[in-house]
Amino acid sequence: MTLSPDAPHRSRLLGLVLPTADAPLATAGVRVPGPGGTSDSTLGVGGVGRDPAGRSADGAEPAPVTHLEVLPPRPAGHAPWPTWAHPTVIEAFRGRGAREPFTHQVEAAELAHAGRHVVLATGTASGKSMAYQLPALTDLTADPRATVLYIAPTKALAADQLSSLHGLGIAGIHPSLFDGDTPVDVRDWVRAHSRWVLTNPDMIHRGLLPQHARWIRFLRRLRYVIVDECHAYRGVFGSHIALVLRRLLRIAERYGAHPTVVLASATVSDPAGSATRLIGRDVVAVTADGAPRPGAEFLLLEPGAEPSATGLPTRRSAPAETARMLADLVAGGARVLAFVRSRHGAEQTALSAQRRLSEIAPELVDRVAAYRGGYLPEERRELEAALNSGRLLGVATTNALELGVDISGLDAAILAGYPGTLASMWQQAGRAGRGDVPALVVFVAREDPLDSYLVHHPEAVFGRPVEVAITNPTNPYLLRPHLACAAAEHHLTGDDLAVFGGDAALECIEDLIADGVLRERSAGWYFSGLLHPSDEVDLRGGGGGQIVIVEDETARMLGTVDLGRAPGSVYPGAVYLHRGVSYVVDALDFDDQLALVHQERPEWTTTARSVSSVDLRDVEAERGLGFGIRCGFSQVRVTEQVVGYIRRRLNGELIDQRPLDMPEHTLDTRAVWYTIPLEVLASVGIGEGRIPGALHAAEHAAIGLLPLFAGCDRWDIGGLSTNLHPDTGDPTVIVYDGYPGGAGFAERGYAVLGDWLTAVGDAVASCACQAGCPSCVQSPKCGNGNEPLDKAGALVVLRLMGERLRVVGAGG
What we know:
The strands form 6 sheets. This protein has a 9-stranded mixed beta sheet with strand order 2-1-3-11-18-17-14-16-15, sandwiched between helices. A 7-stranded parallel beta sheet has the order 6-7-5-8-9-4-10, sandwiched between helices. Strands 26, 27, 28, 29, 30 and 31 form a 6-stranded antiparallel beta sheet that branches. It has 27 helices and 31 strands. The longest helix is centred in the N-terminal third of the chain and has 20 residues, at 235-254.
């Protein structure tokens, strides 16, 4: 298989998104994977489009297209229907067009039917639903008292699954939603009659487990627990869900049920290990995908420069470039999903695409819309139906359409910025593909270190496995309140310790006894309160409570922010955005956990300034790298205080700095760190005067790229660099988890430190700027206003660390 980068050989869709027919692909690398999935040819001039100085091969400015990957088509792999499958269920699937199942569907269904906990980790639109519906519906049909519990991370996904079950038309199942929107009288009916309940983790935690005695009928006959899109459960949220699932299985077993857990996931690294950590029981993985694929052209693109209001060139934004392509593809008759990082961004991208269509194809303006969380359920269903039917040709969406909502027949997917994980990236890309026609996928880089790295290092997208879903259910800050909930549901015994983490659980129980939350009796540990403590656990937050953001004049609640993040985001004077409307914060009250705001459209942005320190406490792991250089992983205490904020005009010009008197905030968490002695830095040309800027820039760049390895967001982590740390006695760089007790991100960073810092060095080296920019060493959340920064010094530090880690064979 070969591909020429010349214009006549491009697909029609590729021609629609490229502005000209000659230059862009002439400087982009084009890889055509061979039969084994590896590249068998690299065509075009200039590799990935830049030399070390940032120029394209012909000496011109960098081309916007940096790489084109051609993903080959894949034929389907079929298997016969299992002999145990109920004829009624088979006929229902055949009536929906499934003449024969795919191999992975049968493999997973066989394991589940045999009572093995199984995770199915295959691509988007590979038919994972049939793999669990087949054994579950067979059991429900054979036993009129059997029940199934389906858990989805979003209400929209549960509603889509409900529609799928209704479409099969199998009598006597009574599938029903049980979520926060379910009326009270309907909830009573669901408990009494439904045999397939569709819900979400929040409702399990707050609505089912605290009232499990009312669910005896359902729980006693529970055959399957289905955990859909389980790759979404990572970090602090995933750790919470792991504990909710363990509580659920414990209560089901108390009523005599031993349900089989079937998990559905995007393709992730070590799906069996991730799923085992999630449910606390051994899980078998099925990963060989038998679903057909039409192939795709996957384009990596970095927007070029354009004149700004100041007359200086600035990089065109990813949403603006996405809106242009969305409009051009729709004008060419294509059906497109454009994924944008924020709700406001999705709305603006749709509006911008409509404005462009009003100029080039006015008859199509109404066939583009936005889709995001916050819409009413009926609005979402209407948009989904319009997209499926072709009434809508283009939709700008948040990740609300990333998960398993059934959207088919799309020609192209545009990704405006890295969605946070490679798993999500491939989920979004997999939304495109229709029949045998190759799809088009375009990744548009934002002005961000990770995005810039990916478009210039295509091997990081196409040549590596997706990340492991990181969870840490033994984090004591999360485990303690869940153990209190578990004890309120049924007293804890020694047998429960293994379920909740062994020694870690015992230590938490002892703390709860000391705090008076539990009391010890001969039969076990009992909850001492009157009300179930579920309201004290925020599954989707980091713990420690929430600040409620309220509009002062109307008393309207606009949103919430974690207590720990409030000082840096809703301080007095901060500009706060909500649904495209700007507000200014008037007051922040920690006692009442309230931030008061008023609506205003100031001609400036605000950024918090802070001072911080990190005390290294218990060192959990440490390595010497030679010449006195060390790296480690430790428990730490972070102390931070917001001391003021910076105001800048919308063009970035500094207006002033304003002081604030805010309380100190402490965070006990975990961190990865490295130290380099002064004399070693001096030997590589970094004198004492350059150390602060070099380490600060290296810290920023490392934070920007850790999400590629740890499956987190840069806002989930923090950092500190200093030319003399009191606990190490040397210049030190620290990157820590932004959650109490840690979320596993820093620990993962320590495990892959060599690969991580090498990638960071490559990203800084390949950026064309001279002194540092948002694409390499500047950070949007820096408490010191991005001062001082020494990009060249950072590159020396990163290369030194990468070399030492390679020499000792550590971290990757």
